[in-house]
Amino acid sequence: MAFSSINKIAQAMFLLSLATLEAFAAQDNATKYRDMCAILKMLTQRIPATQSKDSSDKAVASVTAASKMAAIYGNIVRLNLTVAPDEILAVLSDQAKYKDGKTVKANAEVKDVFTGVDEGTIDVMFSQAPKLRGSGADKEFTQKYGVPIDLATRERLRLTAAALANKATALRNRLITVGHQADALRTQTRKLMLKALYGEAYLTKNDAAITAEGEAPALTENEFFWTSSDTRDNNSKTATGEAGKAGHCLAQDMVCLCVSGHNSRNQYCTNQQNGNDNYSGSTATKTTALCTYNKVATACQTGNNGHTNLQVSSAALTTATTALTANFGTNWVNQAGLGDANGNGGEKSGILGVYNVAGATGVACSAMGASPLSTSGGKGVCINYGNLLKTATGIPWINTVLEAAENLKKIYEDSVDLIGIVKSAEAVESQIENLLLIRNLLTQAGTKDGQQKVATPTQEEQIKCKNPPNKTAEGFANVGCDFDSDKNKCKPKPGAANTAAGAGDGNAGEQKKEEKCTRKLEDACKKESNCKWENNACKDSSILVNKQFALSVVSASFVALLF
């Protein structure tokens, strides 16, 4: 019972595998045609530019890396303009006089104001400046970042903002360079793909019109590969790689694999072919062959041949080519005793398509007549690539496909690089945004740190001045106290030994600790853990934390982002 169930499952899986062939299942070269279809589907695809996700408007959409960078860079320039000096803003506000970056750079009066800024960036500055003020101002932006910003704050933030903007410029320039290289490689690869499919004559005629993403020019009979007034066997039997012969391009070889030298039963690949296409003798013309190709190509694109949603890539193209060449020599029909393998086995490994094996007759791909597979050996609806495979040349169109696959690998690597550059630019954009948003915190920290603190006497100081050993003016002075004649009592000197407050770069407690070290001789200094002997003097070695800590941490965080 278990064995019977396994058999049923195996039968179902076998039938399912046949279902993918649909109309191609009954044809002798259906599987080889299906493998060729996979390659054809990829060779006809366009090669789009690198896409980056953009979710700025909730709905996620794909945009090119160049478009994404343009948007990021535009916002970075606008953010940087919020802290720009008045001289730059004045030029940007007078676009009637200064039209663009080229005009600014050519003007002796103002070009020095934009030193280090390229013309392209100045153009972006002109486009972004109106969004900061006047009727065209972006209210949401100006409210978020508190524009206009006062002069003192602008001057304080300008250096950091400019450094970040320069980093963004470098990223933009790098993306442009990599993008241009990738665009050129995409176009070159598309041409290689179409050359592999249609041949050299097609590429020569349409080279200037072929782009990476545009519609490919239609193949016409004038560029078609088939040699008119010649037989099917002369054009297809033995691959030479020459124009008009098998091995030159995929389209040529698909026709060779799908017809015999007759005017009937020419449906060796798909029943969507016109079986009555006339290839008798030397009757077939370029028009005949082009008609056949269009039929089999359309069936590839529209039929269920097991290659749905196939996207071109280096790996996919290489895999499809390997699958096709792995079938060389496998589709043979036994017409008689196999006889001596030395007589008929040597050429099998170079044959693609169905062919006869009979006795000691050498295998070949002659397909003249209505029923080439029902006769003797040496017949077959196939192509013999043996001569090409014996040389270093190989099969021309397959070589071109593999060259395109190698380029696609490089294009993918460029794509990864471009996306990384965009991510880095987004990080810089966030850094400038944060710099502007926390500027009030920076201002408050700086202001508080610069204020002189009012010293509050410690309990120790108050006790010392309250009960000095010598209760005279001189005695008060000896213990660091003053005599208050109005209140007739001793009091601590203002700011004396106050360890809780300080002014400027340190506080009183820290200063007292340092004074304690500076008075020591060398031997005593070296014995004190908080002191060190340096340059013939005793100095404090402890880490002093002052009121500038909050400001220095915030400032340092932005400086660190620049490197």
UniProtKB/TrEMBL annotation:
Give membrane topology per the record.
Answer: Lipid-anchor; GPI-anchor
Question: What are the record keywords, sorted?
Answer: Cell membrane, Glycoprotein, GPI-anchor, Lipoprotein, Membrane, Signal
Signal sequence, renumbered to the chain = 1-25
GO CC term (a single one)? plasma membrane
The highest taxon in the source lineage is Eukaryota
Where does the record place the region Disordered?
A: 492-513
Q: What does this protein do?
A: VSG forms a coat on the surface of the parasite. The trypanosome evades the immune response of the host by expressing a series of antigenically distinct VSGs from an estimated 1000 VSG genes.
Name of this chain's protein: Variant surface glycoprotein 1125.106
Lineage runs: Eukaryota, Discoba, Euglenozoa, Kinetoplastea, Metakinetoplastina
